[in-house]
Amino acid sequence: MSVTLPQGFSAAGTTAGLKASGRPDVAVVANLGPSQAAAAVFTTNRVFAAPVKWSREAVADGQLAAVVLNSGGANACTGAAGYADSVATASRLADRLGAVVDNIAVCSTGLIGVRLPMDKLLPGVDAACDSLSTDGGAGAAEAIMTTDTVSKQAGVTVDGWSVGGMAKGAGMLAPGLATMLVVLTTDAVVDAAALDGALRRACRVSFDRADSDGCMSTNDTVILMSSGASGVTPEPAAFVDALTDVCVDLARQLIADAEGASHEISIDVVGAASERDAEVVGREIARSNLFKCAIFGGDPNWGRVLSAIGVTDAAFDADDLDVSFNGVKVCRGGQIGEDRSLVDLSGRQVRVTVDLHAGSDSATILTNDLTYDYVKENAEYST
User: Which domains does the chain have, with CATH numbers?
Assistant: First the structure.
């Protein structure tokens, strides 16, 4: 269940020596066609990395032959020289694949403000190309890890066509997008315009709603490529649903692996006057350090939820708010509800439901109880 689940894709991960740990650090995902339609979304941070600048230009025509990714260095805030390094990386892969350089995307992740060692990276690209395989998705997913403790992969198959994906991210997780690199693949026959629309819809309810620590990265990139190798053109709604399922799966994996987290929290806001209101309320709760501390301490402190709701401009009546923790309605009508001792927060999964009773729209925000109460030996703090 990864980027090589769909037909028409090969991938590989290899070790080029970019990481002091000696772990894999270069990945390539190649689209074997017959189609090379593509779409992508990127960080909205005004400080963005060289590979983001390059890849925005590369995907502008809706075509990508491949993407090369490295961990061990973000190539961010490295000036013209860093941009030249991204160009050189794309050129190397294009030469090896016989592709047009403008159809190669580049992604980097790691420490900001450090030049990449090109004498190691370019041979790493060569090695990855030599190892490309239709079974190489797992290796590619491992090679893009930074402070991740596990690789992140997902995939679904529907009526003869598939969507696959891989992601990395464990810190600086906050919209827009999160601090992530994501590569998504499909063998469905979908043109570039439809891919772009589907990707933006899927990201809106998945990666854009994953909010761990409120920090936005400089390198966020989500790339979607279609090989068309299945020969099947799915109904647009069915394709969006499958793509969204994969994106939500990967987003949940990102939150589960967030640095220092002991709980994965889903904040469901229902009964909102608009989807926008639901998102605003959910994000405010997710970014409350007091709320996170309560969950870490096993305390279903609904007062901290209400206080977070109260600073938003969402439509609600303070005397008509309901809050539930793992199905126990501890707050009813803005007042004391069921006995909070009935709530069990001993498990890793926590679901908080807020009913605003102001309409029919809803949204779910994914977060965790990030505590920062540990030290990772030789951690590769990264974007």
Answer: 9-256 (3.60.70.12), 264-380 (3.10.20.340)
